[in-house]
Amino acid sequence: MTDKIKINLEYIINCSPKVLYNRLSTASGLTEWFADDVRVRGKKYTFVWEGSEQTAEMTLHKDNKLVRFVWLDEDDTYFEFKIVRDELTGDVSLLITDFTDEDEKEETEDLWSSQIADLKHVLGS
C-alpha cells in the first residue's frame, strides 16, 4: 500500500456560508451533488456511488464553517470542507482537503472539480 498524499483545493462559491454548509453536512444536501445516495446513522454517513458504498464518520463540524469526514475503511484518511469568507470582498470559498494516491492526484482533482461544478449548479451559482 502506498502512502496517500494530501491535496488541498479551493473553489469560489457564490452563496452564503449557511446555505453552503447545509449542502456539505446533511444527507439531503450531499445527495444533491456529492453521492447518489447518503444514509446517516448518528455520526456515520454511508455514501453510495453507482452501487458501491463507503462509510465515513463526521468527526468535526462547526456550523457554517467546517465539516470533516473520516473514512472508516482507510487508515488516517479523511476529507474536509472548510468555508471561508473573505473579509474584504465577501467572497465565499470552499476549501477541500482530501487524500489520494500520488499517481491518482490529477484524477482526484478532476473528480472534485466535476463534483463542485454539480454543487454550483445545485446552488445556482
UniProtKB/TrEMBL annotation:
Signal peptide: none annotated. Residues 1-124 form the START-like domain. Coiled coil: none annotated. This is START-like domain-containing protein.
